């Protein structure tokens, strides 16, 4: 290094000029003449630093070592020196890696970068998640630091060479050989990207094409899944057939007594509305907790009545009795007996009048009341 040699020659010439006794050594007074402009206290401190041997004199070698050590320390505090130290700290090692695995790693790299062919930070994080690389030493925050360290400044994506450095950096952070991370990455070649999508629940009106009506039956997107049997208007018939009550499979009593009780609950006509049917179930003691409730009575009523109508006739009431028995877990005969025992609707919320002798005992009536046709 010519510049260094020239500086040393100048220092040696200056050192000889200050060495008045020509012994090749500088005592404190000679050193004070060399370092002009320093006060005595500062010169003493500097002399002690140069005198590494502690013999009270400074040789030329001690003087030169001190000068260059100071310059080196100053250089380390500059921007260039700081950058050099950071480069040395961040430099990843290519040792402990398997060169034969990089081809498979590149295939995985191409898969994870997607159609845009840009391998971004989120792609590296997704790869680390799928490869299960995260642990206590290497966290999800560290992957962003590794990516930012090796990407080109001003860009948000990396190429395969930078990806290789990321793999080495991950191994360095985890404290394992690079080959370990290479193997974990290369194993994704046959598996691909792990998808974490939510599986939709089964929806009958969408997935069961036999329930389609109207134009959807013959829509080319559904390939006529409804078929010829599922023409408009047939869906109601299918539902009615599915909910039809089989009287032959039930243990029933004669329905004559039930019809008399039914007519009593109809209140002047021969049909029941929903409120009257619910009152019948209550008055007959048909409700059973957790088995047959008022809500179940409404459901059964709506099931047996005709569409668009609000009342049921006696034949529909018979079907309702069978459905009530099924819901209660009892026989139809039990429901028939309960209805027949009721005879008719009970009074709910009415006050029983007290007995009044002059009103109730008609033998006490006098005058015109005794001959009034209302009291006969």
Automatic annotation (TrEMBL):
What taxonomic ancestry is recorded? Answer: Eukaryota, Sar, Alveolata, Dinophyceae, Gonyaulacales
Q: Which GO terms describe its biological process?
A: microtubule bundle formation; microtubule polymerization; positive regulation of protein polymerization
GO terms (molecular function) for this protein are:
calcium ion binding; tubulin binding
* CDD domains recorded: EFh
Give the family from UniProt. Belongs to the TPPP family.
Protein name, entry field: EF-hand domain-containing protein
**One family name in Pfam for this protein:** EF-hand_7
Query: Which Gene3D superfamilies does the record cross-reference, listed alphabetically?
Result: EF-hand
- Keyword flag Phosphoprotein: no
Q: Which UniProt keywords apply?
A: Calcium
Signal sequence range: none
Asked if the Swiss-Prot or TrEMBL record annotates the protein with the keyword Calcium, the reply is yes
> Matching SMART domains, A to Z?
EFh
List the GO cellular component terms: microtubule
Q: Which residues form the EF-hand domain?
A: 6-41, 45-73
């Amino acid at each position: 290094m010519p510049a260094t040699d020239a500086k040393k020659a100048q220092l040696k010439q200056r050192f000889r000029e200050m060495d008045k006794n020509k012994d090749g050594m500088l005592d404190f007074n000679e050193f004070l003449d060399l370092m002009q402009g320093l006060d005595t206290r500062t010169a003493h401190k500097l002399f002690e630093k140069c005198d590494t041997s502690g013999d009270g004199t400074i040789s030329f070698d001690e003087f030169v070592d001190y000068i260059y050590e100071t310059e080196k320390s100053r250089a380390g505090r500059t921007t260039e020196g700081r950058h050099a130290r950071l480069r040395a700290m961040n430099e990843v090692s290519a040792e402990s890696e398997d060169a034969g695995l990089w081809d498979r790693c590149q295939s995985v790299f191409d898969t994870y970068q997607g159609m845009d062919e840009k391998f971004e930070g989120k792609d590296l994080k997704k790869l680390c998640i799928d490869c299960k690389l995260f642990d206590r030493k290497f966290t999800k925050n560290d992957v962003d630091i590794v990516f930012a360290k090796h990407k080109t400044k001003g860009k948000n994506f990396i190429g395969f060479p930078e990806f290789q450095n990321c793999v080495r950096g991950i191994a360095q952070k985890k404290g394992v050989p690079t080959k370990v991370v290479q193997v974990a990455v290369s194993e994704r070649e046959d598996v691909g990207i792990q998808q974490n999508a939510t599986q939709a629940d089964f929806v009958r009106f969408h997935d069961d094409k036999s329930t389609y009506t109207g134009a959807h039956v013959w829509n080319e997107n559904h390939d006529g899944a409804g078929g010829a049997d599922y023409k408009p208007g047939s869906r109601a018939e299918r539902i009615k057939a599915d909910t039809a009550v089989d009287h032959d499979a039930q243990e029933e009593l004669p329905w004559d007594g039930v019809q008399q009780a039914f007519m009593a609950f109809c209140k002047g006509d021969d049909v029941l509305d929903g409120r009257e049917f619910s009152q019948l179930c209550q008055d007959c003691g048909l409700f059973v907790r957790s088995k047959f409730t008022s809500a179940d009575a409404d459901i059964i009523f709506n099931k047996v009545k005709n569409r668009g109508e609000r009342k049921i006739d006696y034949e529909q009431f018979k079907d309702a009795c069978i459905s009530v028995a099924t819901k209660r877990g009892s026989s139809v005969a039990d429901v028939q007996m309960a209805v027949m025992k009721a005879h008719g609707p009970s009074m709910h919320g009415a006050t029983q009048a007290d007995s009044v002798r002059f009103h109730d005992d008609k033998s006490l009536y006098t005058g015109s009341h005794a001959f009034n046709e209302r009291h006969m």
